[in-house]
Design a protein that fits this description.
Bound molecules: NADP nicotinamide-adenine-dinucleotide phosphate
Oligomer: single chain
Strand order of the largest sheet: 2-1-11-10-9-12-13
Radius of gyration: 25 Å
Distance between the termini: 50 Å
Largest sheet: 7 strands, mixed
Structural class: alpha/beta
Strand content: 15-25%
Number of strands: 25
């Protein structure tokens, strides 16, 4: 398929603006061939109005029709074949294997929500039957379920051009919830975005969905995204990206005449605590595991382990040497964009300019453009506690080793932490029994707590939480990965004293869909 560089507004392509931009090949830092048209404010408005029109009919579609639509999107993405992988490679520098895996993950996300829809209980139906004889007042018939919010704006991230982008988890969960979607594609991979956008449009046509169910607007200036957030018909935002971007959009959404929820999943430095006993027993394994986790995706993961907290004992010093030598042997690799590489290098310079931070070890610099060279930095527990900037994410393959004096300093660090996506503890059973307080503190700081594993790699499943307290996200009650992501785009509605014919199928008395419900306070 030849790229058009145009925006996708429902079933039409559109290029009304005069501004164009190009994707950059990170291997050469040269522009790729296709000019992509930045969407005008008018085009964004058109996309949102189409979404509002589509909402009226889409929300009435039954769960099976929506499930088939999601499954068809997955099939159409696969049908793009190698063109998708090759375009993704040229625009992001990610290897073929990684993109192929990410395509599988993206399809599985869509299928997970299709399964959820077919099963049906996700709407959380609750019925309290009327009791006209209740004293002192009769009890009314009230029935509650989750209903879709309306058109949703989705912002794709640079580092997952498929799984957190045009047909990623935000889009899949919003469509599953019954909400049309207007996607702002990430400017680092506009061709990949267009291909996936066309696949969604094809699926929509095949499944007789309304045209405005999906639109893709592109651009390099923040105006495009802001126009989505500010549009009065948009009812929620799904965002994956940096703290700066997420917080800026959150603030804009809160200043609207009608504020709307912004589910911004942002960066995190994912602290890893290594306890004394396990350090004695498994230091080689942990050093190698951590090195692999730091380097995965050239460190460009929101779950990258950016802080490693251990004790400055003799064992700790041996571990430090082991990890430093692992890092020293690690070759650099191509980062996603020159801008991301610059921000990573500037972040490292700033960290190293801090007198309490030392460079412990640096990886091998390969030839080639846009290389991300891994670095391991070092500080003490005391210095970390008095330098709050050290907790911030530096997006790329670096990590700070924090040597604490004892377990109480480790606890003080845990207590001082802000919200993160994950925290990891490496410990034996005895370690854990001796550090129960640490587990309790960390539970309040993160969305996912890991034991003796590594934070990179997020399983897409029913029980996953990919979220966490601010500043990891702007809403700690939600997850952006896994089945729970769907309720970000719904709200509970109570139908009181409704006749059967007016009730949604999920709430009709005979339970025609056979879903699990709460009836008169009992789970049926
Ligand atoms: P990004 O630069 O924030 O970009 C994300 C999107 O937001 C882009 O479409 C960008 O458009 C837009 N944007 C950014 N600032 C904006 C502003 N002030 N106003 C309007 N739109 C704005 O982030 P990224 O480079 O894609 O990704 C790297 C970051 O994402 C890292 O911090 C990483 O940890 C995080 N991340 C988090 C998760 C998670 O699930 N929590 C997953 C993956 C990545 P423009 O480029 O046009 O401005």
């Amino acid at each position: 398929m030849t790229l058009t560089g145009k925006n996708i507004l429902g079933f039409n392509h559109s290029a009304k603006g005069s501004k164009t931009f190009f994707a950059i090949n990170p291997f050469t830092q040269e522009n790729l061939n296709t000019p992509h048209y930045e969407a005008t404010q008018e085009e964004v408005g058109q996309a949102v109005v189409l979404a509002e029109v589509a909402f009226k009919s889409y929300k009435e579609k039954n769960n099976v029709d929506k499930a088939i639509f999601l499954e068809t999107i997955a099939e159409e993405i696969l049908a793009l074949g190698n063109a998708l992988i090759q375009t993704g490679q040229l625009e992001t520098g990610l290897p073929e294997g990684r993109l192929t895996e990410e395509r599988v993950r993206t399809m599985n996300q869509l299928k997970l929500f299709a399964t959820l829809l077919r099963e049906g209980s996700w709407v959380d139906a609750r019925i309290d039957f009327a009791d006209p004889n209740r004293e002192p007042f009769p009890k009314p018939d009230t029935r509650q379920m989750q209903r879709p919010l309306g058109p949703v704006g989705v912002f794709g991230a640079s580092n997952f051009p498929l799984a957190f982008s045009v047909a990623g988890g935000d889009t899949a969960s919003a469509l599953a919830a019954g909400c049309p979607v207007v996607v702002k594609g990430h400017p680092a991979h506009p061709g990949t975005s267009e291909l996936v956008g066309v696949a969604i449009t094809k699926a929509a046509k095949k499944c007789n969905m309304p045209g405005g169910i999906f639109s893709l607007v592109q651009g390099i200036s923040v105006d495009v995204g802001l126009s989505i957030v500010e549009h009065p018909l948009i009812k929620a935002i799904g965002f994956t990206g940096s703290y700066q971007g997420g917080k800026a959009l959150f603030d804009v959404a809160n200043k609207r005449e009608e504020p709307i929820p912004v589910y911004a999943e942002m960066g995190s430095s994912n602290p890893v605590f290594i306890l004394p006993e396990i350090l004695k027993q498994k230091k080689e394994t942990i050093a190698e595991g951590l090195k692999n986790s730091i380097l995965l995706g050239v460190g460009q993961f929101c779950t990258n382990p950016g802080l490693i907290i251990t004790n400055a004992t003799e064992e700790g010093q041996v571990f430090e040497k082991l990890l430093a030598s692992e890092i020293k042997k690690s070759p650099s690799a191509t980062m996603l964009t020159p801008n991301i590489q610059n921000a990573y290098n500037k972040g490292l310079e700033k960290l190293k300019a801090n007198p309490s931070v030392d460079l412990l070890s640096k990886g091998i610099a390969n030839d080639g453009a846009t290389q991300g060279i891994t670095e391991l930095l070092k500080t003490t527990g005391k210095d970390f506690l008095s330098n709050k900037d050290l907790e911030k994410e530096n997006f790329g393959p670096s990590s700070i080793l924090i040597n604490t004096e004892d377990s109480s300093e480790m606890l003080a660090i845990a207590k001082s932490l802000k919200g993160h996506l994950t925290a990891t503890i490496h410990g034996t059973e005895d370690d854990l029994k001796n550090h129960l307080e640490l587990v309790k503190i960390l539970e309040r700081k993160v969305g996912r707590l890991l034991l003796n594993q590594y934070p990179t790699g997020v399983e897409v499943c029913q029980s996953m939480v990919h979220g966490g307290p601010f500043p990891a996200t702007t809403d700690s009650q939600m997850t952006s990965v896994g089945a729970g992501a769907i309720t970000r785009f719904t709200r509970p509605v109570c139908f009181q004293n409704f006749p059967e014919f007016l009730l949604p199928a999920e709430l009709k008395t005979p339970n025609p869909l056979g879903i699990s419900r709460i009836e008169n306070a009992k789970r049926i």
